[in-house]
Amino acid sequence: MSALSWIFPLCGWLLAPLMVGVINRVKAIMAGRRGPSLFQLYRDLFKLLRKGSVYSETSTLILRLAPAVILVCVVLATLILPWGGLPAPVSFAGDFILLVYLLALSRFATVLAALDTGSAFEGMGASREVLFSALAEPALMLGFLVLILHTGSQGLSDISSGIGLADWQNSAPALSMVALAWFFVLLTENCRIPVDDPTTHLELTMIHEVMILDYSGPDLAFVEYASALKLWILGGLLVNLFLPLPFAKPGLQAGVFILGIFLVAVLVGLTESVMARLKLLNVPKVLAGSAALSLIALMLKLVEYYQ
Fold this sequence. Notes:
12 helices, about 70% helix
């Protein structure tokens, strides 16, 4: 394993909050406002780490342990994700399944802690989170199956290094459908518009934010930082698919990958600026459409495979 493999997780650990800052700045520019600083999330995290945590009398040890579990799961997930032709620090056949399971475990800890508070509002948000995530996972997993058939590899590092510019010339429809499905998965998993509004204060419409209402101090910092890392991971999957440079020099790969990550952030900001939040009843329909896109892409690859 090359020491260069550790550059991506280190960049993710350091720059993930900046990705959130780029999204907020793009939204502010589109609205004609100055907006917060690009480094606002860094300041918020440091401020929260200096404070103490307050716990409800009805909560148990689950609420206290959940933030650490959430953060550890997402940090471990960054070790599995490659970039360009450089392998991830942790790479093996079927590692994409572990990546999905780590993200699912962090979600499970979030939902379990929300239920542990005994709040009806947090229970409502937890039920919505579970529903939308269950509908988003098929689109993600079917997309992985498409890439496995396309590259003939079963590990994320091999899949990433097996996709080049020529692949987009030969299989652009299938890869485009996977990319579009994954982009909506990114919006769903990170509770962005049009699925959820991370800045809303209306409890009846919140999903992710209502589940973390009982967190404060370092616990809230862990959860917010883990959310930024999750955005970085799913953005990294899109960049590996959209900007394949498996044979370029490591320095060029690093620069292009980081640039691609922030281009994804700009795209998220533009999407949130031009779209309104969907009605809750319409979100499952869009998620089913995302899964259908991945399924159609899989059928196209199966036809190519058996021809």
